[in-house]
Each structure stands twice: as C-alpha cells, then as structure tokens.
Amino acid sequence: MSIIELGEVRDEPASMPPPRRPRAAGRPLRSTGVLLLTLLVLAGGAPVPRRAVTSVPTVPDASAYLTDDGVVVVDPTTPDGERYLTAYTLPSATGEQRVRRRWRVPLARSGDYLAVWAERGLLLAVGANTAEVLETTAFDVATGQRRWHHPGLVQWTVDGGLLLVDDADDAPGTVSRVAPDTGRVLWSVPVPPGSPDYHERDGRVDQVVVVQPTGELQVYDAGTGTLLRSVDTLPGDRSAFQRVQVVGDLVLLVPPGSTRLVAYSLPDIAPMWTSPVPLVAWLVACADLLCAGQQTGGLQAIDATTGGVRWAYPGPDMLADVRQDRMLMMGRDQRYAVRDAKSGQERTDLGQWGLVSRLRRDDDLIGIRSTVDGRLVVAELDLAAGRARTLDILPGVAGGCQAALPVLLCRRLDGSTALWRLHR
C-alpha cells in the first residue's frame, strides 16, 4: 500500500527583516520589481513537496531489516503456527511506490533472530537457538533458497571467502574457513577465550590474530589458515589470560592485571611499545591516534607510534563514533557532542538524539528525536560541520529506525512498518 502524506519537510525559515522603503522610481527599478513580483507569484503557486510513504507487510511483532535493495521481514516466534522469512523489493524512486514480494521461505518455529543483512549474493541471518547459541544461516539473496547453517558468526575475507567464528567469552572456540555457496568447512583453527581478532584490508579480513594462554601470539592467513608468524609474549614458563585487539597495523595486548597496554607491529609481530594505560576495555582508531576506553569510564588518546598519552578525558560521555578527526560523544541523557580527536577538546553540542542503525560503518550518521506534538525529527549529524541538519519531520512514527540514505525504515505508532524516501 502506498500513502502520500503532505507535511512539513524542512525547518521553519527564519523570519525576514521588513523591506526597505523603495528608492526613486525609474525604469530599471520598475523592471526589477515586475520580475520579483512574477517570481513570488510563481513560487506561491508551486506545489508543496510531497512525502511518499510505503507500507511494508508485516505481522504484529515481526522484525524488519533494511538491505541495499530491499527489506527482509522475520516473523516472530510462533510455536503453534507457521513462521516465515520474506524478502521485498524497495519502491522505485520515480515509479510505482509500493514494495513487491521477491520470495518467502519457512523458518524454524523457535529461536530469535538478531541481525539480517545481504552481501555478495547471500542473505545472512544471525540468531540464537533455544540453548542461546549464536548461529548463522545463509540464504540465496535472489531466491531465498537455504544454502547452509552453522554455529557462530561470519566475517568476509579479502579474497571473497567467509570466516566462521564459533566461540564464547569464557570457553575455547574455533575459527573456520567456509565456502560461501555451500558452507563446506575448508579448514579450522582452535582459539582460546579472549581471541581472535582480525587485521583488515579494504574492510575485509586478511589475517587472524590469536593469543594463547601460554602467551604465544599467533598470526594466521585468513585465506589458507597457514600460521604466518608467532612470538612468545610471556617469557618463561608462564600462563595467563590476555585480551588481544588489532587496530590498523598494531596488535595490542592487555596483559594480566590490566595495568598497561603492550603493542606489537604487523606482520612481523615486533615489539613496539608499552604504555601505562590501566583497565583498558576497548581500543579504536581516532584520527592518527588510538582511543582507549577504560573499564571505569573515560577515554585516553595514545600516540600509535610511541605509546605516549596525548590527552585524557575523564568522562562521563562515551565514544559513539569517529569520523576522520572528529569524535561523536554520547552523554548519559543521549545528548551528543563533537570533540576533536587530536586534542580532545569539545567543538560543538549537537543536542539530544537517538542514533539510527545503518547498513555500513561509513554510512551517514542519522539522528532521530520526538517533538512535543508526537512527530519524529530526522536529521543528518554532520561531525565535520558540527551541526544537525534536519532531513524531515515525520508524523506517526514510533522509532526502531534503520537508514541507508535516502531510504529510511521505521516502525509506526500503530505497530506497522513503513519506508520513507528522504530529500537531502
């Protein structure tokens, strides 16, 4: 079903100052006045921008997932009835404003699906079974045919393959290479708790990094499973739990006690530096620095070459995203601010927003917030410009939104799901 709504699609314009008193009459001025009057009349007669809203067929409590060229709907758990996975096309930007069903396939009656996305001809669905074990099921994106089903989560490799990681926080696991079309396991490597992590090239995995309880740091080729290099990080006959994280071309270890951070270079695993940064919970690249989030809150920025601490921020705001040399920080009341990654200084306050889920990590940052009259403001959070630019103000929307601009998918107040095409 297609609905055309007429409504507010831009911020209210600022009030204009009163016009000046006209100067002495003359032919050039009279001609200009006629031209301006004509433009005003034409502008007043122009049609109001229309907002196209397309309903997506869903049953109550179903989950809808936006993909690059469609919407996938997962029915809720129904122990006594049928349950389906349904794929729809996106409405045309210029043609018919409705979704068309591509295919529909039955699903197991039990288990919860947590994420669904399409990539390289596969529709990958991650869910938890009745034993709360994470599993990945692959479907053909064009036909819905089920290709394979394995415990674990998947990562794409640089050569177009898939890594399947079946692990838990407190138990050993495995990293396996599987054939994308068939799910056939090509090789497997055992991994201890706290591992593995990955080195990426162009957004795809090319090396798998593992740290053993004995302290042996290992690097495997993601294509062949070959052990490329290893080094002992705990000299002597020692054994301890260490966490490993890869950021850029650095392997970072949090040793026992979590009182420091140790860096090694890739691919040779040569020691780089040790930094006195305690209680590190996670690390991420911030411009040309490393941002280390601490278990007690707060943030420290570390020189990636020397390990020196450039600046520290005690909190309580948390790092939500990084774009080039700008960091998006979220306060406890979901109030977002932009900070400079090189200095840690706050640049601007963007206000209170909820971040919308996006398909890719580099997609535009979209924020939403409700107005006093129950509408939903949708805005692009531009970190470089330091502003929130309103894209639309939608009536009757509850939230649960996903974005792949110019398309926005949200749940409405009546429980239904719909698509909007936003004007930037």
From TrEMBL:
Gene3D superfamilies: YVTN repeat-like/Quinoprotein amine dehydrogenase (2.130.10.10)
Residue ranges, annotated region (Disordered): 1-27
InterPro entries associated with the record: PQQ_rpt_dom, Quinoprotein_ADH-like_sf, WD40/YVTN_repeat-like_dom_sf
Record's protein name: PQQ-binding-like beta-propeller repeat protein
SUPFAM superfamilies, per database record: Quinoprotein alcohol dehydrogenase-like
Lineage start: Bacteria, Bacillati, Actinomycetota, Actinomycetes, Micromonosporales
Pfam (any one): PQQ_2
Origin: domain of life: Bacteria
Residue ranges occupied by any Pyrrolo-quinoline quinone repeat domain in the UniProt entry: 138-313
